[in-house]
């Protein structure tokens, strides 16, 4: 659709439509924009928009008299600017696509178009990728041998119903997350202090709203969520829950776990790997940050991309965070994507 010029068509139609007059009917330009936005992080979508000159058109838009139109124009413009930073400004930045949690920093990653032939994908499950045979063997011995068979069954099911995400899509998610994390997140020590203060406020609210004597069903049947070390947290980029808006928020892991109990209690084959990521972060709090990106696959499924990021306080501005390891899982929308942390 982007190659066919839909952004230009929508742009030209906006001055003639007021959402307050027409609502959001099926087939409206508003619905088209809301539908397009969650997929505009993809490098192919950005390339199509750039080729047609849509970047210049949206950046140089005239002031709209309608507030809704102005808001959507600003959102599309912001999305294209973020894509430019991820795919043009940082085109030569090497980003790791390795799933090994012990991936050596000195091995770096891959430039934008140098990943396909050098990445090694597990042929059993197609769910994890590695930069080398050494990383593949190391991850097999520590984690992947325990999860590969189950992930392989998931791969065959998702391949059959066409819900399997390509390596290229996962590459775009990793690159986009690393770029936008560097754009929007400040120094790690400051972030940790901020989250700790918010966590204490959240705990206070929880205590105030919890009955002093829980009923029998709560005490006997409800499973207690796992507890994490104080100061452990997760940064979430949500490209799903909030429609056409990209939201970045950071939560303590205790709070996140309380809201996303289906993941921690549902027996996901990814749980051992997720717990290892958490342990790595808790043991290296001054240099490791956990990031989760939520991306729409289709109306029924959401992709969750988890990154282990390393913070370098001596790095250049907007280049202080880099990916160490990553993996992507797909879940039904109702299972996790509607977890909304206020």
From TrEMBL:
InterPro entries, per the entry: Znf_MYND
Keywords annotated in UniProt: Metal-binding, Zinc, Zinc-finger
Ranges of biased composition (kind: Low complexity): 208-221
Chain positions covered by the region annotation Disordered: 207-227
A Pfam cross-reference name: zf-MYND
An annotated Gene Ontology molecular function: zinc ion binding
Occurrences of domain MYND-type (ranges): 95-148
Name recorded for this polypeptide: MYND-type domain-containing protein
Lineage: Eukaryota, Fungi, Dikarya, Basidiomycota, Agaricomycotina
């Amino acid at each position: 659709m982007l190659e066919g010029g839909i952004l230009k068509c929508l742009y030209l139609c906006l001055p003639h439509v007021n959402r307050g007059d027409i609502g959001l009917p099926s087939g409206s330009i508003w619905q088209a924009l809301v539908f397009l936005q969650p997929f505009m992080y993809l490098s192919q979508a950005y390339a199509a928009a750039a080729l047609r000159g849509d970047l210049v058109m949206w950046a140089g838009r005239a002031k709209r008299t309608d507030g809704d139109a102005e808001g959507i124009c600003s959102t599309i413009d912001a999305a294209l600017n973020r894509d430019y930073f991820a795919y043009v400004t940082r085109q030569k930045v090497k980003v790791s696509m390795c799933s090994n949690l012990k991936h050596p920093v000195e091995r770096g990653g891959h430039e934008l178009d140098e990943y396909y032939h050098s990445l090694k994908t597990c042929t059993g499950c197609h769910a994890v990728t590695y930069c080398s045979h050494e990383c593949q063997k190391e991850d097999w011995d520590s984690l992947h041998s325990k999860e590969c068979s189950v992930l392989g069954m998931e791969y065959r099911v998702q391949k059959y119903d066409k819900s399997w995400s390509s390596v290229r899509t996962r590459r775009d998610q990793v690159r986009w997350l690393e770029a936008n994390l560097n754009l929007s997140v400040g120094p790690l020590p400051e972030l940790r202090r901020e989250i700790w203060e918010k966590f204490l406020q959240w705990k206070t609210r929880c205590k105030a709203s919890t009955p002093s004597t829980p009923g029998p069903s709560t005490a006997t049947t409800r499973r207690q969520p796992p507890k994490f070390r104080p100061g452990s947290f997760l940064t979430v980029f949500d490209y799903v829950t909030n429609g056409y808006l990209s939201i970045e928020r950071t939560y303590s892991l205790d709070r996140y776990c309380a809201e996303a109990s289906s993941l921690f209690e549902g027996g996901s084959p990814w749980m051992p790997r997720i717990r290892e990521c958490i342990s790595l972060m808790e043991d290296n709090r001054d240099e490791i940050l956990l990031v989760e990106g939520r991306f729409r696959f289709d109306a029924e499924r959401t992709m969750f991309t988890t990154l282990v990021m390393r913070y370098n306080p001596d790095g250049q501005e907007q280049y202080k965070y880099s990916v160490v390891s990553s993996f992507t899982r797909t879940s039904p929308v109702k299972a996790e994507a509607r977890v909304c942390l206020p």
